[in-house]
Recover the amino acids of this structure.
């Protein structure tokens, strides 16, 4: 695939020192988030940033996919575990979801949160309360 080829060729401009600087930056960000994760069990974000058409991806596959992962691209480098669940369907009939994130080791918590979220989603009256609460907070 051309996109993979372009990525590999483009990576030649980076040195081993660049890779280590990036790794040190990741570790610095992980340390800066310790207090956040002590105070919060999980983080909930949209699974994707927008709905893309096939034409959008064909025009610029790398940027389209990078932008669509706006809310989740950082998860793997920071060592976070995640689970995505369906949330709703757009007026155009396109499904979209939310992603629960937490530090590695909290997989059971995320599974429980995802199950509770999906159970609440099956009961429309609960979703309305959640949406109203989210809008007013």
């Amino acid at each position: 695939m051309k996109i993979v080829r372009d990525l590999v060729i483009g990576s030649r401009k980076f040195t081993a020192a660049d890779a280590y600087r990036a790794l040190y930056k990741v570790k610095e960000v992980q340390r800066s988030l310790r207090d956040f994760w002590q105070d919060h069990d999980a983080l909930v974000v949209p699974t994707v940033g927008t709905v893309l058409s096939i034409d959008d991806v064909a025009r610029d596959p790398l940027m389209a996919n990078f932008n669509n992962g706006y809310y989740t691209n950082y998860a793997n480098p920071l060592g976070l575990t995640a689970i995505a669940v369906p949330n709703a369907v757009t007026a155009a009939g396109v499904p979209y979801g939310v992603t629960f994130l937490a530090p590695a080791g909290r997989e059971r918590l995320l599974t429980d949160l995802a199950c509770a979220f999906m159970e609440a989603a099956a009961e429309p009256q609960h979703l309305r309360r959640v949406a109203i609460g989210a809008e007013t907070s």
Notes: The CA atoms of residues 40 and 102 lie 9 Å apart. The helical segments are 2-10, 16-32, 34-39, 54-59, 61-68, 107-121, 124-136. Residues 127-137 have pLDDT under 50 and may be disordered.
